[in-house]
Amino acid sequence: MNVRHLVPSMASVTLTSVTLASLLLAAGLLQPVHAADTDFSKFKRIEPQYIAALGDPGAPSGNGAQAWGLWSQDPGPRGCKLDRYPELKASGVAPSQWKFDDKDWWLEEHGLIMEKPTFPLPAGKYLVTGDREVTAVLTIQPKDKAGNQRWELSGGATLYDVTHLGCRSARYRPGTDNNSCSPSNVRTTGFPVTPGADMPVVNGCRKQDYTVLIVVGLPAGR
What we know:
The protein has helices at residues 20-26, 32-35, 85-91, and strands at 43-53, 61-62, 69-71, 80-81, 105-108, 112-114, 124-129, 135-140, 151-153, 169-174, 205-219. The chain is mainly beta. It is 8% helix and 27% strand. The protein starts with 19 loop residues before the first helix and ends with a strand. Strands 1, 2, 3, 4, 5, 6, 7, 8, 9, 10 and 11 form an eleven-stranded antiparallel sheet that branches.
């Protein structure tokens, strides 16, 4: 899930003279049709963050954002190889210092065990892209009285438009009471997973595939 090449280095760029919109255009991340109703100058560029999302790929809005999570940094390079699982299990802590939960673990497209995202995704606005053609503003509403959070994308963009197809992500939890859901049951063949394909089924586990959105900007005052 390493897509840090998305946004060019800012070492030689003066933010006062170059807007976020022009940076995104230069990086090929901004589609003008979706910029028409959005003021990108209200967003500041950030190091990429990653949203684990669920929803209808063809929908521009929906419910259920309370089940979405956020990785504040790329979890791929921080992942643990499957053949190192015995060490991870024994220590309970990955080399990158995140804690492993054997009842709720995650896998990415290269077969790396990765840290869980933070739940829930905070309400607010996020500038998101799938590193293809579309960049849009994602709005996450506060929870209503029933605990539901709505989400919506600007400019008619759909969830598929801002999905990074190369990033695959799945959550694995025990499917039975005997807790037989383990990374040791993951087949080591079939990686990397084909872009757009489902993550592998693992014996003893309930699997949930998540869509990955890349956050490239946050509101300037945030």
